[in-house]
Amino acid sequence: MSTVMDANLADPSAARRDPTSPRAIMRRRARSHVGFLIGAGIVLAAVLVAVCAPWLAPYDPYAQDLSKTLVDPVWTTGSWEHVLGTDSLGRDYLSRLIYGARVSLTVGFGAAAIAGVIGSLLGLVGGYFGGRVDTFVVYVLNVKLALPSVLIALSLVSIVGGSMTAMVVILGLLTWDRYTVVTRSVVQQMRSSEFIHAAQAIGASHTRVLFREVLPNVMNQIIVVASLEIAIVILIEAALSFLGLGVQPPTPSWGLMVSEGRAMMFFKPYLIVLPGMAIFLLVMAINLAGDGLRDITAPEGRA
Asked: Looking at the whole model, is its pTM more than 0.70?
């Protein structure tokens, strides 16, 4: 064992090639985790579609052609000119679906990032310091949990407006409580651990202990919460857009597309089935990827 350790110290690249290193174990877990591969593949595909939307979309998603309204998809009576048909204003449905991925991913990941920073910091500080600091964090958390987040989101969006920036900020400020609950609970159990006491004994500052010792050990839980929160935020954005309080037309949003197609749902079901399936697949993929990341990065069993 000492020979292997000496070789790794002498050659840093040997540590990366070591089959018992944490990175090698995580790579093996990732390659064998079917749920993670499927979820991450769908999410990556959605991200690539959103980024490359100007080159992938066959038409301008805002361009209207009233002579081609409600053209059926190609698998019914339509043609390859509009593969997924058109909506009631003659806009190409495939192009609007492609651009709609931008709205869902931007709102989902943006709001989750804001909520994750706020909630994780509160949980870290409250769980680590305890005492009055933890009492204050618990008080703020209880106030947040007593507020109906969806109703507040409805009110704020109706007042501020349904721009994408407003949606990200509002949903980010209303969805941080789960991060705080989970992070605070884990840090409370961890603060009496030997490695925390060892770091404190050598004179490490509280900031260094929190961000170099504690935070890496709670990332698994934060990843799981983030995967759930991203999916929830995407659903909330779709619901707000469906109600007309989210992203405003003519911006292509999957929730707004479902709302626009509900009047024709019995005659042109593709108008709500296609964006509904897009929301379903993206939410399921994010959950699968998050659950897979938790399993892959779990410290149990690492040599």
From this structure: yes
